[in-house]
Fold:
Amino acid sequence: MESTTPAGAPAADPARDAARDTESAEFDAVIAADGRIEPRDAMPDAYRKTLVRQMSQHANSEIIGMQPEGNWITRAPSLMRKAILMAKVQDEAGHGLYLYSAAETLGTSRAEMTDALLAGTARYSSIFNYPTPTWADMGAIGWLVDGAAIVNQVPLCRCSYGPYARAMVRICKEESFHQRQGFEILLTLSRGTTAQHEMAQDAVNRWYAPSLMMFGPPDADSSHSAQSMAWKIKRFSNDELRQRFVDMLVPQAEALGLTLPDDGLRWNEQRGHYDYGDLDWAEFKAVLRGEGQCNAQRLAHRRRAHEDGAWVRDAASAYAAKQATKDAARQEVSAA
Amino acid sequence: MSGSIGDGGAPARSVVPEKAWPLWEVFIRPSRGLSHTHAGSLHAADATMAIANARDLYTRRAEGVSIWVVRSADLVASSPDEKDALFDPAGDKIYRYPTFFTASEGVPGL
Amino acid sequence: MTSQAATQQAATPQAANGPATDNTSSAVDATPTAADSRDIAEYALRLGDDALVLAQRMGEWVSHAPELEEDVALTNIGLDLLGQARALLGYAGSLTGRTEDELAYFRSDLEFRCAHLMCLPRGDFAATIGRMLVVAAYQWELYERLSESADEALAGIARKAVKEVAYHLEHARMWTLRLGDGTDESHRRMQVAIDDLWPLVDELFRTDELEQQLASAGIAVDSSALRGPFDALIDPILADATLTRPDVPPAAGGGRHGRPSEHLGHLLAEMQVLARQFPGASW
Structure:
C-alpha cells in the first residue's frame, strides 16, 4: 500500500485515487462492523502509526518493567516467593516479546523498536520509574500496578487490530496470577508483625496515586483518545477505566486491612461510584519528562544489557552463517 | 510492506554493526490429535535456536506437545488484493452443504 | 546427545560396591534405615545446595540476558534449579526437623555443602554457559543413576530432575557450539570461561566416606564413578566447538565439608538479608 505518500501530496493518478478510496471504504466498513483488521489489509497511515507507537510502548513497558521487580529476585525472603517472582518477571519478558511480535506484523522490526527505546525516543510506562526499596513493593506492584494494567488491558482483547488483540488475550490469561500474587504478598505482610504491616502500608501509600495515573490524563486533556476510540483501538476513556479501578480497590483494601492514602475517597450514592481525590498531574508530567527517581537508571540498565549482549548475538549470527555455507557446500557435493 | 513506519526516532547508538537475528513464525500442537496452530513469532539466529526459544517462550504453561518453526520470510501468503477472486466464488455454491438437499428429509439413514 | 549419553548408562548405584567400601562395611547395617537418616539429609543438602546456589546465580541474569528470548530461557533453567533445590532441601529438612527456608536462609556459609564451582560469580554469558555445560553434564549423569536409588524420595526427585537437566545440557551445548565456533571474540571468551572454571570441575567427582557408605547401601551415587561418563559427554562438545580442554591442576575445593568458596558468603549475604532482618516472620 501507498502509506509512504505524504498526506496531502498531489496525486497525479486518478485510478490510484479511486483504488485508495475503495480501500479506505473497506477499512471503515470493517471497523464499523466491529471486525478485525489484519496485517496485510489496507489501513490508514495514521492508524498504522498509532498502533505501532502503542504496541511498541506497551512492549517497552513490559521489558523495562522487569527491572523494579527483578531488583528483589536475589533477596526474596522465601524460596517459594523467589520462584513466584522469577516466573512473574519472566512472564513480563514473554509479554514484551508477544507485543513486539504483534508490532512487527506492521513492518517495524524489533531492532528499530529497541533502538528507539535505548535512544530515549520511544516511551514506556512512567510507573516503572518509581523505585522498589522494600519487599512490600513486590506486593504493591502486583496488586496496584498489575491491577491497573489488567483493567486497561482487558478491553484491548477486543481491539480492532487482530494481532494486538490476540497478544492481549494471551497476556491477560497469563497475567491474572500477577495481581493475585501481589495481593497475597500484601495480605501476608499486613497480617504479619507490626514492622511487616507498616512496610505494606508504606508501599501502598507510595504506589496508590501513581497507579491511578497509569490510565493517562483526564479525558478533557487527553489528545489521542478520541481518534483511538473511533478506530476501536481503545474502548473506554481514561476516566472510565480509572473509575472502574478505584471502585475495585476500595473493598480489596479493606480485605487487606490497609488504607488507601486518599482523603477524597468516599462513596457517592448518586453516581453509584467512589469519588476520589485530585491527582498530582504535575508530578506525572515531571516523571514523564525524565525527572522520576529511576528514569536514567532504567534506560542505562537496558542499554548495558544490550551492549553486553552484542558479542553473543554476533556469535550466533556468525555460527548460523558458517553452518549455512557448510550445508550449501555439502548439497553441491552430493548433487555433483 | 511499506517502509518508514517507525516513530521517526533516529536509530541512535548503533553499538556495533550488527545483523539482527531473523524472525520466525511458531506453530504449536496443543495436544495429540490437534493440528499445529500459529502461536506467534520470535527471533533466533538459526532453526535449532528457534525451536529452543519457541519452547521457552510459547510453552511455559504446558501449552504444547510439538513445535514447528518457519522463517517468516519463507512464508507465502495470499494477497488481500486477491481476496474477492479467491474467496467470493465459494460463497454461492450452496449445493456443497447437506442442508441444500431437502427431498431426503425424514428418510432413515440419510 | 541424550541418546549418546543414555548408552553410557552405567552402573546401578550398587555397582559402586567394591574395595572403596571395605573400610566402612562394618558400620553399614544390612538395612538402610533410620540410622542413616542424618547421612541421607547431609547428602541431600549437598545436591540441594548445589542447585540453590546455581539458581541464585541464574536469578542474577534476569533482565540482563543478551537477547529477550534468552532471558526467558535462562529464567526457565533457574526455575528448574530452584525447584530441585526446594525438593532436596525440603527432604533434608524433613529428616532433621527443619523447613526448606530455615535451611536456605538461616545457615551460615560454613554450613552450606555446595561445590565451589556453583559459587563462581555469574561472569559474562560465556562463563554462565560454560558452567551450565559442566554442571548439567555432571547432574545428568548423577540424576540418571540416582533415579534408581533405594531411597524412594531421592529417586523421585532425581526422576523429575533428570529431564530438566537434559534440557539444560542441550541449551548449554547449543550455546557452547555457537560461542566456540562463532566469532574470534566469542571463541576467545568461551575458551577463557572454560579455562577459568576447569580447576573447579574435579571437586564434583570426589567421593568421601559418607557418600561411599550411602552408595554401598544403594542410596547415593558414587561421584567418582561419574567422571568417565562425564568426560565422554563433554569432550566431543568441546571439540565440536573448537575449544581446547584445559590441562590444569585441580583446585583444593572443600565445599562439601564446610570449607566454602570465598564467593559464597557474599552470595548468601544478599540472598538471606531480608529473611534475617525478620527472623520468625512469615512471607
In short: Chain B touches chain A at residues 1-16, 18-21, 23, 40-43, 45-46, 49, 57, 60-61, 77, 79-80 (CB under 8 Å). The domain at 18-100 of chain B is CATH 3.10.20.520 (Ubiquitin-like (UB roll)). Chain B has two helices and three strands.
